[in-house]
Structures are given as C-alpha cells and as structure tokens.
C-alpha cells in the first residue's frame, strides 16, 4: 500500500458515519460602523478620490463645477443636464479617448471598502465609457450606500455586468512607484447626494 492510499484510508475511516454539512454558516458581519455614508466618504477619499457631498437639488450644479470646461460623455439615462456633454450612441474608443470625462450614476456604494459598483443600466452606460475618459464623475445617492460586500451582493443582479471601482485606476511598478490612469480614469470624483 502506498502512502497516498494509507492517508486516504485514514481519512475515509475518520469520516465514516459523519453526515455532510449542508447548511453553510452565515458570513461574518462587519461591526456596526455608525454612519455608513460618512464611512463610505472617508474610505473613498482614502483611495485618493475626491468626494463632494450635496443635496439632490444641487447635483447638476456640483457636476458642472467638477467638470468645468471638460467635455464629458453621458449615458442615455443619466437624468442630469450636463452642459456641453456628448451622448453615448456607440462612441468608438478613439472618440471616447478624445473626451475628458464621463458622468454616471452608481448601482451601489460599499462603506466598508469605499467601493462603487456599476451594473451598467441606462444611468451608468456601457462599460467602455467608464474606462476610457480620464475623469469619472460618479453620482452616488446616500440611500445606495450599504455596509459591506455581502450587503452589496444582496442588492446586485448577478446576471448584469458589474464594474467594481475602488478609487482611480492605479498600479505600481516593482519599485512601488504609483502610476494612475493605466487601466481606467486617472481621477475619480464622487458626488455623494443626501
């Protein structure tokens, strides 16, 4: 008998008569962090992103201030009037690269990780528009902020394409020199409503 066979025989013997576990234990829950919206803003800023808090009636003005003279692409269902913007009607990568910014909404914000999740509905647009322009302005309603990843997964549709954003796109080389904007927008500006 080989050592492998001997080990397997012992495992089988030890498991003889043991019923398999069919109910998984619940995922550990994050401790109560108090104000989830404040924690979300703090964690987003930890990623070198900018957060501007405002009331619902101030969103258009805040977005206009953030954009300045930048030309932005907007998804068809954004619901915010963005002066000088370009609607996305299947813009090519080259056309997107010629634009300065993108303005979207979010599907959910995760307080524990400072992550924004897009599920690419009409108010968020297709994935390409959120990856090519250098500035991403993302509107997150306070009511969309959840405590942690399990809470986010509970409200997201797994059949939809999901983009998880934790700060501006960044990478580091072997000497740990940070380079931003390699795989997506160099700047993330979150407009937190409410």
From TrEMBL:
<dbReference type="InterPro" id="IPR003741">
    <property type="entry name" value="LUD_dom"/>
</dbReference>
<feature type="domain" description="LUD">
    <location>
        <begin position="95"/>
        <end position="193"/>
    </location>
</feature>
<dbReference type="InterPro" id="IPR024185">
    <property type="entry name" value="FTHF_cligase-like_sf"/>
</dbReference>
<protein>
    <submittedName>
        <fullName>Lactate utilization protein C</fullName>
    </submittedName>
</protein>
<dbReference type="Pfam" id="PF02589">
    <property type="entry name" value="LUD_dom"/>
</dbReference>
<dbReference type="InterPro" id="IPR037171">
    <property type="entry name" value="NagB/RpiA_transferase-like"/>
</dbReference>
